[in-house]
Amino acid sequence: MLSESVDPLRLRVPDADLADLRARLRNTRWPEPEPVPDWSQGVPLAYLRELCGYWAEGYDWRRVEARLNDAGQFRTPIDGLGVHFLHARSAHPDALPLVLTHGWPGSVLEFLELLGPLTDPTAHGGSAADAFHVVVPSLPGYGLSDRPTSTGWGIDRTARAWAVLMDRLGYARYGAAGSDWGTSVSSALAVRDPEHVAGIHLVPPLAAPDRTGDLTDAERAALAELERRGRTESAYSEMHRTKPQTIGYGLVDSPAALAAWIVEKLWTWSDHRGDLSEVLTADQVLDDISLYWLTGTGASAARFYWESIDQVSRWLGEPGIDPVSAPTGCSVFAAEVPRPSRRWAARRYPDIRYWAEHPRGGHFAALEVPELVVGDLRAFFRLVR
Predict the structure, then answer these.
(1) How many CB atoms lie within 10 A of CB 147?
(2) Do residues 331 and 352 make contact, with C-beta atoms less than 8 angstroms apart?
């Protein structure tokens, strides 16, 4: 029987791994420039060469290691898989436990800026009544969690693992929140562990459009953007869904390929006006990419789509399917896709108690506009504490 121990972890990537990364970057075999003046064929050569040049010659990974180690890292075995997580406890005695779940191409790094305001609200413009104990797990096959060696690690099994994790940490009542895959895992967690989940906050809620009745202007715009993205921006998802092993060879062997694969989505899904640096610094971009590279999880992270994307597609295609009855808070950011209306979301989440629509921010809201995410988390969970 596997031990149920929770073991502290201090990360220290070997110097040899960092030297190998720099050597691979310097020896990249580059394609010719794109014959278009924009990102319509993918990441422009000049952009990627500049980013990878900085990655090889100026980027400091040790800074990221220090932040992760300071946050408090742990590992514990659950259902045969070693699960990595950050655990930041609040000094406030009535803090509500909260499990935050990331998605692809994200990681636990997305939530580092939230830890201080959530655990120590009195030092960040809030009151003691807003305090949380924060748990941030790495999805199976992501970051410092183990890479599954058999099939089955999708949304539902991950949610069951998170329920075990929160119980193991001694949290009998807790909230759940997340974005991207984190919205689906949090929803599944509320269904799997309803007696312990106080409520869920989703960025955004995943619910099928309801085309009956008169559509609002915002609903029509959301539908048009959803359809456009499906035509022009879904290649990565189809590759992950159908052949993650094939794309995985490039993602774990070539740092330039990994950088292009991830930065394209960072650029496409963020709220900027043509320059990613408006919302994410080069260091933030490379922090995320470096974690995928140094843990060798390009292929294993992609497999989460093979396991789960058909289930998500059903939720986005059939109004009201698999309803989630837990108290729900929702945040919809201006550049996010999908952008469900409250009317659409209520078909799947009948107990929506908090709804926020923001005029700025995109898919990586916790990185782009962390203050808005913190405000929404505080506002919703005040209603269910």
Answers:
(1) 17
(2) no
Two structure tokens written together for 152: 């089955």
Q: Which residues of 173-202 are buried (b: 16+ CB within 10 A; e: fewer)?
A: ebbbbbbbbbbbbbbbbbbbbeebbbbbbb
Give the whole-angstrom CA distance, residue 262 versus residue 236: 10
**Measured between alpha carbons, how far is 110 from 68 in angstroms, rounded to an integer?**
11
Beta strands across the sheet bearing 132-137: 7-9, 73-78, 81-88, 132-137, 96-101, 174-179, 197-203, 328-333, 352-358
pLDDT by 10s per residue, the chain, length 385: 346 899 999 999 999 999 999 999 999 999 999 999 999 999 999 999 999 999 999 999 999 999 999 999 999 999 999 999 999 999 999 999 999 999 999 999 999 999 999 999 999 999 999 999 999 999 999 999 999 999 999 999 999 999 999 999 999 999 999 999 999 999 999 999 999 999 999 999 999 998 887 999 999 999 999 999 999 999 999 999 999 999 999 999 999 999 999 999 999 999 999 999 999 999 999 999 999 999 999 999 999 999 999 999 999 999 889 999 999 999 999 999 999 999 999 999 999 999 999 999 999 999 999 999 999 999 999 999 9
SS3 189: helix
Q: List 358's β-bridge partners, or say none.
A: 333
Helices (H), 58-212: 61-71, 112-119, 155-168, 181-192
Predicted TM-score of the model (pTM): 0.97
SS3 of residue 201 by DSSP: strand
Beta bridge partners, 179, equal 203
Q: Which residue has the tokens 């073991």?
A: 7
* Tokens representing residue 228 in the block: 């456009």
CA 149 from chain center: how many Å? 22
